[in-house]
Amino acid sequence: MTNQDIQNEFSEDQGQALLRFARFTIGEKLGITEKNHDQKEIIKSLENEIFNKNSGVFVTLNMDGNLRGCIGSLESRESVKQGVARNAVNAAFHDPRFPKLTKDEFARVHMEVSILSEPSPLEYTDSEELLSKLKAGIHGVIIKKGGAQATFLPQVWEQLPDKTSFMSHLCRKAGLYSEEWKKGKLKVMTYTVQYFEEGE
């Protein structure tokens, strides 16, 4: 799979089925059963073989316009269906940046599911070339140096549209000096996503 293949692989209906599955999975852990989220219907909606293909998946929770949890996998080690279930639970209850999601918060969270393409190495010789090759709003970016690693999904470009600021924040997320990307020593990979979000 190339970075472009993921763009329209899943239909909107299939994306919404994954979102219902994510919400049902979290609700089940909280002991909440929502109307219109019948378990048999949700399982039936995921019978298409496309949900069994392996892909990296992220689940993001937002509440009142702010991030409330985001956990995912960059590598395609499990099926999309398995990845959504596991990462929905992890985003709700195991994101170290936030306390566990509560029953009161459950109805207020807005969920997103991102399905990733296979990351591709981005070759560059200096910081100027690095910035020129990044596609704002399209590329998710992974940086690695030694044991440090971090990623920003393409959606983060909405908050950080400036490439310089984007890379500096990503370095800080990885626990690196904010200007580390300017030294040309980082391993950089990019990917694209197809993402779906719940309706209002």
TrEMBL record:
Give any Pfam family that matches. AMMECR1
Q: Which residues cross the membrane?
A: none
* Residue ranges of every copy of the AMMECR1 domain listed in the record: 13-200
Q: Which Gene3D superfamilies match?
A: Hypothetical protein ph0010, domain 1, Hypothetical protein ph0010, domain 2
- List each coiled-coil range: none
Q: Write down the PANTHER family for this protein, in alphabetical order.
A: AMME SYNDROME CANDIDATE GENE 1 PROTEIN, AMMECR1 HOMOLOG
Please state what the protein is called.
AMMECR1 domain-containing protein
Species of the source: Desulfamplus magnetovallimortis
Cite the source lineage.
Bacteria, Pseudomonadati, Thermodesulfobacteriota, Desulfobacteria, Desulfobacterales
